Amino acid sequence: MLGNKATKYKIVTITVKKDRNCYAFPTITVGGFMNESLNLYEKIADRISGEISGGAFYSGDRLYSIREASERFSVSMSTVIQAYRLLEDRGEIEARPQSGFYVRKKVEPHHENDTCSQLGGPSDVVLEDLAMRVIQDSANPSLIQFGAALPDPELLPFSKMSMHLSSVSKDLRYVNLYGNPEGVEELRVQISKKSHIAGTPVQPDDIIVTNGCMEGVYIALSVLCRPGDLVAVESPVYFYLFKTFHSLGLRLIEIPTHRKHGVSIEALRLALEYHPVRACLFITNFNNPLGHFMPDENKRELAELIAEKDIPLIEDDTWGDMYFTDKRPRTVRSFDRSGNVILCSSFSKIIGPSFRIGWVSPGKWMKEMRNIKLSLNVGTSVLPQLAVSRLLATGGYEHILRTQRKAYFQKMKSFVSAIRRHFPRGTRVSEPDGGFVLWVELPLGIDSVELYHLALEKGISIAPGTICSMSGSFTNCIRLNSACWREEDEPAVKMLGRIAAGLLERSG
Known about the structure:
nine-stranded mixed sheet; four-stranded antiparallel sheet; globular; alpha/beta
């Protein structure tokens, strides 16, 4: 490994402890060097190599910047450069021009440990007080908001939306109007144009404007399912959904989900063969809470599977516009030829949650879903619909998106770097290609619920991983929000890391 200097080996003991709730998680004990004459850059290279093998970085993850590594290991930047060059020579990392250093991707077969859970059986939905407490935390202005998946208010287009709202409010035709249950035609036309550009052709007559994406999900489930029916969801899953499932009397089967590539198609196929699944509900682009997006080949395979089994899929594409890559990711709906995909989305993350403007494309269930929408609330508020439609028509929406994507990408990188600086060794943190939620896997022995309560005492809100499953899984995981990250929040991250380290030490 180090050329002809046979004595320059590092003693590294790796113990793999497998948690049934998440993929195998190695803990590392690093001994001293056999020969203290080992060059400093070689020692740093071995330290970083140990972190990679210990699970601090995934295959394909970006490593510390040269400056970050210099500060972390208290060495010069030239020493870091030498260390990275050595790791390149070993084939462990790769340099990407104007981007940084990355863990070299390995082509390997699928393993059980690539997924965050095991396929279990159906379960009833029980609402936990803890989940409701986390939701309530999001409305507390005195807390540092790391737990709620809220956008940065400074990046929201308040001035533009206020201008458009003011304009439409002066027209009495709109003020004194309930509107149609499917929504204002002007907005549905703009959504249709936007969907065509994104590669998922949706016609204006196949759109119902909703009060956020969640109403679209609720209506879809109401049409597709009856109390007691079984719905397949990702694991971990967006915990807000449990309230919807519970209110409709539905049962769940949690499908193991790849930490980067989305729901396991193999596990889903098995679930469909052995259980009476009535519908599937997945967030395929920048999933909340994992942050992954499903590759096109997986989306195509998923579309083929639900066509083969004749099972409807509710696809939540709320995060699809918030990508950091060169182009917008496609939806499963774009690969669907069976008409089995109901597509839902929302503008809440882009223009602000308070406007509550979402939409759903029901396809062959249009009549049934329109009737339920009518019975629920007649229709979505007209004035916000018109304001959003004019924002879309004038090109303002795309301009806002470009600004937000750039800002959220930098915020995510900075937050991830802070986590890696301050959290205990062995912590794994996602580095998603879009959105602004981070999934943090702490070393085994750290109870995320206890961490949540201790963090609250310090004025910090987080979301413990256990609320993202009905099975009690993800006890050592937390979800964090990078959207509102500020450099002045680093002391809070340091405090979280200190609390986590204390819990780890106590666990032995």
